[in-house]
Amino acid sequence: MSVLDLIALLVTLAAVFTFINIHYLKLSATIGLMLLALIMSITILGVGAIFPDAGVDKLAANILGGIDFKEVLLNIMLSFLLFAGALHVDIQKLKEEGLPVGILAFGGTLLSTFLVGTIAYYMFPALGFDYTSLGLTSAGDFFIICLLFGALISPTDPIAVLAILKTTNISKNLSIKIEGESLFNDGIGVVVFLTILAIATGGSAAPSDVALLFGQEVIGGISLGLGLGFLGYYLLVIIDNEHTELEVLVTLALVLVGSQVALAYHISGPLAMVVMGLIIGQGNSSEHEEGIAGDYVITFWTLIDEALNAILFILIGLQMLLLGPAFIENINLVFAGLLAIPAVLLCRFLGVSIPITLMKFFRSFEKGTIKILTWGGLRGGISVALALSLTAPEFGLSKEITNLIIACTYAVVLFSVLVQGMTIKNLIKN
């Protein structure tokens, strides 16, 4: 299929599934679309098993296999989604909650990465996935691979989190903690993942080199976001809502240029998009002042956000077409995925509760903050994209390693969106 054919197929599925969800399922868009896509995938696999000569499952898998999920999400969709999400964040509230947001996004992500990696290091061998069966030469290499899984699964997905938060009546202070943490720990998580991946694939593990790589990604991403953000703010002040189409083109150009510059210079594009969105979106969430980005710009980016969200979670659901055969071939992958769910939840709880407990000595938190942050820390497309990126030949990871990580990641994401996403409203009410 050509690129245009794939786009037409995905947009059509998004429209059909959205119609079904709105009129029949009446679930949150994120949950409903992913559920329908998952049902479609399982149905196709079932038809393929019953009628193997028809080749329906192979045809669908080949079509989906033509989509580079990592390229589509990390290098294209993610910039648009993070910028759109950051536009709606109340920057004044974010400043007030800056300390807990920063500690949770940075410290919580690093802590969770280490905890998940440590649990995986002892859990995987119990299921028959030790370093020898995975084609590794030492237990040390195996621990790095476990940390790699911890890095990609620890950051909460801002796309999933923000989509679910829109449907809840959560307090503004707690909402900004969840929004801010998810937006920033996504960028931090990607940087941690790339740093550990560089070590796992033969890069230098020297502390100075790791710090340099980490600093380049983080500081470079924030600096790029600040530069483009103030440039965009200045241009929108000049335009002053007189030409709404020009305002849209300016923001669109900044997102596209910013993501390409970040990619070219190996700095964090996600962090750049978040910072730029926060600066350009100043005032848009305030009741007392009008944002510099006009209503037309906000409406445009809201539409982009909704459309890309729909396509993203349909793609996640359809990934079962590619992963299903691996689960069937090795049932232990299913067990590994099932055990990864409580392990990741436990580490999320510790990654949230330890920093908040320490901060309670000098800062007050709302009742139920730890509980809501733990259960509301959804994983989504970013984790799946990072896991799928490991299959690239240049990384040289064995099929056994990538299958294990992808299976665990997919199980956690499915549970996160379908179970946690569907029950978060009741948790907030209680």
Describe this structure in words.
This protein is mainly alpha-helical and 430 residues long. It has a single domain (68-429), classed as Na+/H+ antiporter like fold, CATH 1.20.1530.20. The chain contains 18 helices and no strands. The chain has helices at residues 3-25, 29-50, 56-65, 69-87, 91-96, 98-126, 139-153, 158-165, 172-200, 207-239, 244-264, 269-280, 295-318, 320-329, 331-359, 369-375, 381-389, 399-429. The radius of gyration is 21 Å and the shape is globular. It starts with a helix and ends with a helix. The model has no long low-confidence stretch (mean pLDDT 87).
Keyphrases for this structure?
single chain; 430 residues; mainly alpha; Na+/H+ antiporter like fold; 18 helices; 0% strand; globular
